[in-house]
Amino acid sequence: MSELLANDLITPDAGEIPLLSLPSVSILKAAPLTRLSLRCREATQKDAGAAFGAELPMSPLSNTTAAKRAALWMGPDEWTLLAPEEDLKTVFDGIEEKLSAHPHALVDISDRSEAIIVSGDKAAWLLNTGIFIDFSLEVFPVGTVTRTLFHKSPVMIWRIGADAFVVEAWVSFMDYVSGLLVQSATELEAA
Amino acid sequence: MLLIYCPYCQVERSEMEFACRGEAHVVRPADPSKATDEEWVEFLYMRDNTKGVAAERWRHIHGCGRFFNAVRDTVSDKFLKIYKTGEPKPDLEALAKEAGK
Amino acid sequence: MSQPFRTEKGGRIDRAEQLTFTFDGEEMQGHKGDTLASALLANGVHLVGRSFKYHRPRGILTAGSEEPNALVGVYRNGDQTPNLRATQVELYQGLEAISQNRFPSLGFDIGAVNDLLSPLFPAGFYYKTFMWPHAFWDKVYEPIIRSAAGLGKPPKNPDHDVYGNIYAHCDVLVVGSGPTGLAAALAAGETGAKVMLVDEQAEFGGSLLSEVSASIDGKDPADFVTETVAKLAAMDNVTLLPRTTAFGYFAHNFISLAERVTEHLSNPDPKLPRERLWQVRAKEVVIAAGAIERPMVFPENDRPGILLADAGRTYLNRYGVKVGHKVLVATACDSAWQAAFDLADHGVDVVAIVDLRETPPESLMSIAEARGIRVEAGCVVTGTLGRKRVKGALIGRLMTSGQVASGGQIACDALLMSGGWTPTVSLYSQSRGKVVWDSEKGAYVPGVSVQKERSAGGAKGLYGLQATLEDGYAAGEEAAKAATGKSAKVTYASATGGEAGSGGILGALPHDRNAARVKAFVDYQNDVTAKDVKLAVREGMHSIEHIKRYTTTGMATDQGRLSNMNALEIASGALQKPMTDVGLTTFRQPYTPTTFGLFAGVSRGDFFDPVRKTPSHDWVVENGGVFEDVGQWKRTWYFPKNGEDMHAAVARECKTVRESVGLFDASTLGKIEVVGPDAAEFLERMYTNPWKKLAPGRCRYGLLLNDAGFITDDGVIGRLAEDRFHVTTTTGGAPSVFATMEDYLQTEWPDLNVWITSTTEQFAVAAVQGPKAREVIAPFIEGVDLSADAFPHMSVKQATFCGVPCRLFRISFTGELGFEINVPRRHGKMMWETLAKEIEKHNGTVYGTESMHVLRAEKGYIIVGQDTDGTVTPQDAGMTWAISKNKFDFVGKRGLARPDLVADGRKQFVGLLTKDPKVKLEEGAQITTAEQPATGTPAEGHVTSSYYSPALDRTIALAIVKNGHALEGKTLYVPMPTGSIPVEVTSTVFYDKEGARINV
Questions:
Q1: CA distance C762 to A36
Q2: Would an 8 Å CB–CB cutoff place A28 in contact with chain B?
């Protein structure tokens, strides 16, 4: 997984056994992260990026990454900022300080969701069992980030490699999401 | 299932990601206290329910979360124009004509 | 060899692999590559079912998915799937099939008496025969009709199969893999476009698989298929899906496909899904669904042994099966002649070709002559003999007068018929396209495309091998170009033979029989005859839509693909209107019957809906708590101890909270963080209450209305900082409150510098309520002086719980001293377990939602959605205190001033006490002023909440009652089936009216 985007940030949770481990696709729980929701207007975006340590991506559905930082475009005035778990306070306070004079909203949502890493040849296929998005690389290149639906659960998808995706869901939805992914992968084990 | 273009995400996505929020350009009176009862009822409840070309509000609720407006032919389900919140209401008749209705 | 009707050679079956199967328990042999239908025919079995209404013996009519008669049940894992078309069931070793709609047996069916009684069952008999007496309908007529009519029996057990789902995108979707579809897929595939080729059959090739008298590029058509499929399979950009039916064409080129994954396997791997739903978004679609042959409508055209001519040819050439030893061919067009020739070439005695046309083409006549086949031109079949198998046909000669003269009988054991061809416009019609009448072709063909699709080949009425191939290539090229802008040079294959024929007939054939007594079937599956259609017209049904519904013609599982055109012509004759003026009914999804399992997919059992759990869930399970579903959430309902029932558990929990302390999981409450310089301004505009003067560290109850003035939600809102509020909502209201706030923010007040973020799942929330609440939390909380003076009721502060940062609220939904602790969710389990242990030291209790409801009802706190129903204003609810008088505007302010909302006679929120303290009212029960109201008396209101109150040791209830606030002390009645219950109207606050307990 070394060539993956933000591989210093998105890592399998060492303490967890894989949810799925097949030759063609695996599902691993991701380690906890700092997640911040940042909302601000145009005038503030540059400063916000500087304070965070990674520029805020301006193109829809895109991401920017820097060392131990990733900023994900969620909407025209909304970003999710990712950093290591232990950096919560530093990052939060750093942005608040820098933006103190500008209207903005920074909210800690670290515990709101959980992430899994779905990777392997069949990763896109597996996601397509519940998501209607075209995951071909021309349409959904590496680095694309989007919110969407997986069957009946809202999810966030971030493509971190040609065959690797981060799937985030609100915590109470994660059993449903990961459970269905594992169930849908069953047929890959068929002879 | 409709395919809808989100003007903020700049992609077409399935209708499942969106919520339709009814007729667009229904203006909430700036000073409601000055609105007559009739005007307020008009604002609250009276909708055209157009068969044909109509402007609707949509929200990309399972995407970027933004509201936007779309002109749709409610008979053919064709979208004739999609535009961001705050942009003026397009000339529906001209759009309909252009679409060959 | 036990298959008397199997040919010596030929066909695409694997003669080396013999398969054993049973039909109605009788063991038979077939081959790999057979369908159940072809295997039955190989064994000489034509009688496979009984008809829907008259229970007439029926045989296999077609070789495709349009089959109306040969519906069978197939057993698998001890359960039976009904109504499968034998023509689509692929044979496998050990297949067990049964016939349907017969009792006691297929050969002797008691229901066949309906055939003799058929004058009782004319078209529309449902509507007129069993009208009286009314009471008989439910008890007598319907059950009898239901059991006598109908098709297969539904399986008894839950479906243990798994069904898959996949979303897919492609540039070009090609539906159908006959000459047109193969050519289209190849042409599109060569451009590099992403192509999907789907066909409902097991093998690609369509009509090419039974074409033996033509050649393509000098090769057998079947070899052309093999080579083309191999080319397609070698392309990475092409997905091949056999056994896959495109059953629905929806808006914006959304097409759904049903793939039968394991249905054809003898021992499928249980890890595989039985079927898979493909939900495809295609940039362009090529509909190459071909055309299907039309039955001829002559008397007794439904006997087993009577098949469509092309089906007979398919069974012969593709499956190596002769439909009979002495075959009569009845036709009005050229194509059936080829079936006769092919049969003759296999040594079958073709007893005659009966062609309606006075002068069939000379070219065909000479071939027939060369084979020694008798030709009866200008003749029709006027009836058939035999019951469970056709034994002969009556021949009639068409006179110039239009009359028919008897032409004697011809003995046969099978009859092939062809009334011509009907393009399959189902998918085009589903795509909302309007078909147009092509008088030259005598068919409805696709008109202007309204979606990005094109019909090609037989599906648009184009026939002949060369023409359909060319049309396929062209359609594939055009579609790929339109989808991707790319094109490629494609070499067209060229065909010899397989030329388009001419001829065809619509409607019922003339005959010399007694029209009142014979049945000439138009719609086989629904037992609709030509007579029925005429009767419908005589009885006033003049629209084809009415005729369809009155007679049920075209309502079979093939949606009238076989019957519509004939029915239309008959109706047109009866109406004396041109056919094009009669109109055509619309084809709708699904194209063929589709299993419920496919639609349900993974949404069943544990995955029917997301099951949302809070961090206390595991602890609750271990400690015997009982859950209730609140939307998708599992919330703890109550905690029975030592075998308590719910009543006892709730009574104990409530009593303990009031006397000592209770712990409650409030994590599901909606939480929204409102942040920004305009946060207070925003809340001013959203909620009825004032917010600007609320000091950081303080909380206030917030009431949310819609612009009509009605209560939609409520919750406590804490001000964390000048520009930051922690808003709580009801559990069920969380998503809609969030959406409403976004709506106003984005579309009404985009200038406000404030943003909202859902934090519902960021926090786990424990409510500690009761006189001992402070003592319970004190050991774990740091950073807050918990004393009443320093941290009074309605306060909020950042603190730590066991060292974890938390938001500590002093709030109460019980009327007792209470705290709610919000910790980041990952610490929720730790917090819950810590507090659950601690309350034990104080003889406290954990409590669930039921006790929460009782405790709040004792205090008269409303629950939005239970005590309110979307028509209740704050004044109605007695909450005028929550409305700020000084605000310019808030959502609902203008609505509250509407005349109806301030008028006298509104239903208002009150308490009710039954005169008998033991009687508990029913929630939802109606309230009247009269003890014994006359029938038709409008209710004064209804009971919204009703409980046994442990604190009062009596029942209490909340209600909304007309002018209720003025009725305090008055007696009203709740009439119930067991008698009228007198109640006294009271204040809504039953316990601690002064509110002293909350402020300790």
A1: 11
A2: no
Question: Is the C-alpha dihedral spanning A30, A36, A41, A46 positive or negative?
Answer: negative
B17–A75 CB contact, under 8 Å: no
CA distance B33 to chain C (A): 6
| Amino acid at position B86, single letter | G
Q: How many angstroms from the chain centroid is the CA of residue C860?
A: 44
End-to-end CA distance of chain A: 28
Give this prediction's pTM.
Answer: 0.95
Strands (E), chain A: 20-21, 26-29, 33-40, 63-66, 69-75, 78-84, 104-108, 113-119, 145-150, 153-161, 164-170
Q: Do A134 and C273 touch (CB under 8 A)?
A: no
Q: Do B3 and C895 touch (CB under 8 A)?
A: no
Contact C637, C849 (CB under 8 A): yes
In this complex, the chains that touch B, judged by 3 or more CB pairs closer than 8 A, are: A, C
Paired strand residues for A81: A36, A71
**C829 contacts C618 by C-beta, under 8 angstroms:** yes
**Superfamily name and number for B3-98:** Folate-binding superfamily (3.30.2270.10)
3-class SS string, C14-56:
EEEEEEEEEECCEEEEEEECCEHHHHHHHCCCCEEEECCCCCC
For each of the domains in chain A, give its residue range(s) and CATH number, in order of start.
20-31+112-189 (3.30.1360.120), 33-108 (3.30.70.1520)
Q: What single letter denotes the amino acid at residue C632?
A: Q
Average pLDDT for chain C: 94
Specify whether the CB–CB gap between C94 and C161 falls below 8 A. Answer: no
Nearest to B28 among C250, C281, C748 (CB): C748
pLDDT per residue as tens digits for the range C49-79: 988 888 899 999 999 999 999 999 999 888 8
Q: Which residues pair with C384 in a beta bridge?
A: C393
Per-residue pLDDT of chain A in tens (191 residues, 90 and over written 9): 457 898 899 999 988 899 999 999 999 999 999 999 999 999 999 999 999 999 999 999 999 999 999 999 999 999 999 999 999 999 999 999 999 999 999 999 999 999 999 999 999 999 999 999 999 999 999 999 999 999 999 999 999 999 999 999 999 999 999 999 999 999 999 97
CA–chain centroid gap for B67, Å, is 9
Name the 3-class secondary structure at C966: helix
User: Do the Cβ atoms of C860 and C867 come closer than 8 Å?
Assistant: no
Q: Where are the domains of chain B?
A: 3-98
Please give the distance of CA C957 from its chain centroid, rounded to a whole number: 41
Return the residue matching tokens 């070793």. C93
Which ranges of C822-963 does DSSP label H, i.e. alpha helix? 828-841, 849-858, 893-896, 899-902
Backbone angles phi, psi at B2, to 5 degrees: -65, 155
Cβ separation A78–B64 shorter than 8 A: yes
Rounded alpha-carbon distances, angstroms, from residue A44 to A57, A65, A101: 13, 19, 9
Q: Could you tell me how far CA B86 lies from the centroid of its own chain?
A: 12
Asked if the C-beta of B100 comes within 8 angstroms of chain C's C-beta atoms, the answer is no
What does the pLDDT look like over C791-826, one tens digit per residue?
Answer: 999 999 999 999 999 999 999 999 999 999 999 999
Cβ–Cβ of B64/A133 closer than 8 Å? Answer: no
B&C contacts, CB < 8 Å: 59
Which domains can be identified in chain C, with CATH numbers?
1-156 (3.10.20.440), 163-291+423-488 (3.50.50.60), 295-419 (3.50.50.60), 520-583 (1.10.10.1100), 904-999 (2.40.30.110)
Helices (H), C94-252: 113-116, 125-128, 134-136, 142-148, 179-190, 221-233
Residue in C340, C390, C379 with CA at minimum distance from that of residue C357: C379
- DSSP label of C509: P
**Length reported for chain B:** 101
What is the largest distance, in Å, between two alpha-carbon atoms of chain B? 43
Contact: A129, C166; criterion CB under 8 Å: yes
